[in-house]
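Q: Predict the assembly, please.
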Amino acid sequence: MASLVLAEHDNAMLKDATHKAVTAAAAISTPVHVLVAGENCEAVAQAAAKIAGVEKALHADAPSLARQLAEPMEALILSLAGAYDAILAPATTTGKNILPRVAASLDTPQVSEILKVVSPDTFEHPIYAGNAIETVQAPAGKIIATVRTAAFGAAAEGGGATLEKITAPADPGLSKFIGEALSKSERPELTSARIVISGGRGLGSAENFKLLDSVADKLHAAVGASRAAVDAGYVPNDYQVGQTGKVVAPDLYIAVGISGAIQHLAGMKDSRKIVAINKDADAPIFQVADYGLVGDLFKSLPELDEELAKRGYK
Amino acid sequence: MKVLVPVKRVIDYNVKVRVKADQSGVDLANVKMSMNPFDEIAVEEAVRLKEKGMATEVVALSIGPHQASETIRTALAMGADRGILVKTDQTVEPLAVAKILKAIVEAERPDLVITGKQAIDDDSNQVGQMLAALLGWPQATFAHSLELAADSAKVAREIDGGLQTVEVKLPAVITTDLRLNEPRYASLPNIMKAKKKSIDEKTAADLGVDIAPRLKVLKVSEPPKRGGGMKVESVGALLDRLKADGVI
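A: Predicted assembly structure:
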């Protein structure tokens, strides 16, 4: 049979999370089809057709799908489900919202946030905020899973899938979109950035948090935060890295003024290299850091900024 | 308006979990257990709706062993009116939990189910969505704020890029995110009062729900440990290292 991957996009751009979920899907069941559901999202469907390893991009376009609300998306995926033995979505807030509805309607258990495909029906996924890894085997029947995107490499570009327009079922009419308030940022997105610099309570204020900006700009890094910094009101919640925020695994993660609570480590400990800057030499963050700089961040940060400038980063 | 609040008994969020040596699971023996923090937020929201005169009754429900009745008592002490314990000693997977909740909803006929977006033990983040699907109800997951009207709810949801506001028809399922509210501490008089509130006991069999696990847990292991790092003396030395590693 085949696997179906729900594309992550905003009607204009296909997100990298899709490519990563395709990698997971290819290890479970091939061929891989990608479902692009939205409104006026033709360009996204075309981009999905270019992912290497994808055989077909399904394009459903309707006003009711514009915001990918769970109820119409469930109806759409159920209308396609019969042809697939695996249905996957990236474990984004969109995928996490939609997929359990599909699973329940198909009377199939879901495996959340798979980290590794051990075999086509067996997966590793984190429990207890990543403090334990559970290996589970799904029963015979369909595989339904969300994919922890930080754990999979992105499928390459360069495929030539066929593009197929499909018709969306009628909107169940249970929910409607009212509005959204998205954070505007010129920086890369936290979950796909190659470098992330995060601040904690050690920054002390919303004003001081901006000290990270200059370094972030020079490194083309995304800016994140610990839950403590979010709770203290320094930055909005969508900056949060951790068990209750976003899970990231960049090439380089720089933790500034973050002590390293378990809940924060759960969101960043799979980063390739971790740097910690903290004045407390005993802070738990140093136990996971590859490089630790013990010192006052209000001195180290400007120094770092200056040194980067000196070395030609701008 | 009646509100049903499912709550789960889990390892307290401050406890560092230990994986058992035989890899059969995590060690639950003599470990402090508490109400799932997201469910506490759900109880708080329901109780506030009652205090505002919008909800008439708040029913707290838990599925688990005898001790899960303590978790229900916590909800009662926070202001829930009565409890239901669906007693079982076995692991109940999210889909089975949703089926039990569906049976309870059909009997109790609440207008709103509010529960945590995920439990901090299995981190599944499935039950609210599954329940909504089984009932054919709309859902508003990851709630950041809630505005209730007679036949609909307007919910701002925490999504990856910021906030999204949706309006759902009632009845509906709402799952809570961290910033919805700050749960109260139960006062001593309310803890005493909670002891007199009733907890109705049932089993999954009473409700006609098969809770046999469908997923097979092969093992539970420790996450890979990171190798020991090193301290660097200056930002210059740090940048040299990062350059050598090829990450900047």
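The first strand of chain B starts at residue 2 and ends at 6. Residues 2-244 of chain B form a domain with the Rossmann fold fold (CATH 3.40.50.620).
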